C-alpha cells in the first residue's frame, strides 16, 4: 500500500474498497452493520480493515450511550448479580444497559451481531466462553469495544476478559470437607467441555490428594449447573451402599437439587450428608439449611468488565485478563463426617 493511501497512520476506506474490489458505499455498509451485504464480501472487507489497522475517525457517527450485556441464558440466578454489577458502573458513566439473550454458552447467535452493529453501543459485555473470529473482527472493524465475563476461565488471548479462581475454589470447598473427616466426597460439576468445570474438578482432586485420599471415579459427575442436574446426579450417588458422606456441587443451583435429593432419600443435612455449593448467590443463605458455598465475586467481575470496557487499552499490548479471588463461606450445610 502506498503512503498516499494512509492519513495520519490510518488506512483510508478508499484504499480498502479498491483492494477488496468493492465500492465505497459497500465498505460503509459493512462498517455500519447493514445486512444487505453478502457474507463473503463482508468477511473480505472486515478482514482487510483489521489487517490494515483501520480505526474510525472522530467524524464517524457517534455511538449510543448504551452498554450491551449479552447472555446465552437469563434463567440463572447468578445472571442477576452480573446485571447489577454492569448496571452500577453504567449509571456512574451516564449509560444505559441493554440486555440481550442470544446463542449458546459458547458464542452469541449470528443475527445478534447485525443488531449490535446497527445500535452502535459504547461497548459490549459478553458472558460466553469463546468468541468466534468473525465476531471479534466485525466488532473491531466497527470500532465497538468488547469484554468477556468469562466464568469458564478459558478466554482467547486477544480478548479482554474477567474471570475468577476456579481451581482455588474447588480446592477450598473440598479441603473443608476433608478437614471435617469426610473420605467419600462426591463432586457434581458443570459441563465437561467447560474449563471452569474441569478447573473445579482439578481443585477437588488436589484437595483429596492432599488429604491422602484416592477419589472414587464413580463419585465424579458432570452436570449443567442447574437444579435438576444436581437433583438427578445426587439421587444416583445416594443410591445403595457406599454412598458419599459429602457432595461438592459445581453451583448453588445444583446444591439445591442435592438438598432435595437428600430429603427424598430420608437423609439429614448436615447430620447424614454434608453439601457445599459454588457461587454464593443470595439464595444460598436462605436454603434449608443455609448453604456452605464458595463465593465467586460475580458482581465485582461485572463491575471490572464494565470499567475495562469504558477505559480500553489502546497501547497495542496483549489483551488484559483479570482473575478475581474466590473464598469459602461456611454456613450450616456441612458438619463432621457421621460416625459409622
Walk me through the structure.
This protein has 340 residues and is α/β, with parallel strands linked by helices. The chain has 3 domains: 3-51, 434 Repressor (Amino-terminal Domain), CATH 1.10.260.40; 64-164 and 299-324, Response regulator (Rossmann fold, 3-Layer(aba) Sandwich), CATH 3.40.50; 166-296, Response regulator (Rossmann fold, 3-Layer(aba) Sandwich), CATH 3.40.50. The protein is built from 11 helices and 14 strands. It has a 6-stranded parallel β-sheet with strand order 4-3-5-6-7-13, with helices on both faces. A 6-stranded mixed β-sheet has the order 9-8-10-11-12-14, with helices on both faces. It has a two-stranded antiparallel ribbon with strand order 1-2. Helix 6 (133-141) links the parallel strand 5 (121-126) and strand 6 (146-149). Helix 1 crosses helix 3 (39-51), helix 4 (78-92) packs parallel to helix 11 and helix 7 (166-179) runs parallel beside helix 8 (195-210). The longest helix has 16 residues, at 195-210. The relative contact order is 0.13.
Tag the structure with descriptive keywords.
340 residues, alpha/beta, 434 Repressor (Amino-terminal Domain), Rossmann fold, 3 domains, six-stranded mixed sheet, 11 helices, 18% strand, elongated, disordered N terminus
Brief overview, please?
Helix content is 38%, strand content 18%. The protein has 340 residues and is an alpha/beta fold. The radius of gyration is 24 Å and the shape is elongated.
Amino acid at each position: 500500500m502506498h503512503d498516499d493511501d494512509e492519513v495520519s497512520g490510518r488506512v483510508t476506506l478508499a484504499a480498502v474498497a479498491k483492494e477488496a474490489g468493492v465500492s465505497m458505499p459497500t465498505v460503509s455498509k459493512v462498517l455500519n452493520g447493514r445486512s444487505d451485504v453478502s457474507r463473503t464480501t463482508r468477511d473480505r472487507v472486515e478482514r482487510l480493515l483489521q489487517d490494515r489497522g483501520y480505526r474510525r475517525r472522530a467524524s464517524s457517527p457517534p455511538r449510543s450511550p448504551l452498554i450491551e450485556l449479552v447472555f446465552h441464558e437469563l434463567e440463572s440466578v447468578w445472571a442477576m448479580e452480573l446485571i447489577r454489577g454492569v448496571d452500577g458502573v453504567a449509571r456512574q458513566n451516564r449509560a444505559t444497559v441493554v440486555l440481550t439473550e442470544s446463542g449458546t454458552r459458547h458464542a452469541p447467535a449470528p443475527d445478534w451481531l447485525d443488531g449490535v452493529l446497527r445500535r452502535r453501543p459504547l461497548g459490549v459485555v459478553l458472558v460466553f466462553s469463546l468468541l468466534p473470529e468473525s465476531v471479534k473482527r466485525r466488532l473491531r472493524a466497527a470500532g465497538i469495544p468488547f469484554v468477556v465475563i468469562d466464568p469458564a476461565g478459558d478466554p482467547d488471548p486477544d480478548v479482554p476478559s474477567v474471570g475468577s479462581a476456579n481451581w482455588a475454589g474447588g480446592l477450598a470447598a473440598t479441603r473443608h470437607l476433608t478437614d471435617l473427616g469426610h473420605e467419600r466426597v462426591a463432586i457434581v460439576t458443570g459441563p465437561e467441555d467447560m474449563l471452569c468445570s474441569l478447573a473445579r474438578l482439578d481443585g477437588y482432586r488436589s484437595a483429596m490428594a492432599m488429604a491422602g485420599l484416592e477419589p472414587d471415579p464413580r463419585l465424579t459427575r458432570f452436570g449443567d449447573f442447574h437444579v435438576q442436574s444436581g437433583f438427578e446426579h445426587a439421587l444416583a450417588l445416594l443410591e445403595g451402599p457406599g454412598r458419599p458422606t459429602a457432595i461438592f456441587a459445581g453451583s448453588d443451583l445444583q446444591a439445591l437439587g442435592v438438598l432435595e435429593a437428600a430429603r427424598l432419600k430420608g437423609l439429614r443435612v448436615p447430620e447424614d450428608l454434608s453439601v457445599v455449593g459454588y457461587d454464593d448467590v443470595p439464595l444460598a443463605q436462605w436454603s434449608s439449611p443455609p448453604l456452605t458455598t464458595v463465593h465467586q465475586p460475580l458482581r465485582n467481575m461485572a463491575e471490572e468488565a464494565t470499567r475495562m470496557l469504558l477505559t480500553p487499552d489502546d497501547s497495542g499490548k496483549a489483551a488484559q485478563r483479570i482473575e478475581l479471588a474466590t473464598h469459602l463461606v461456611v454456613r450450616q450445610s456441612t458438619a463432621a463426617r457421621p460416625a459409622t
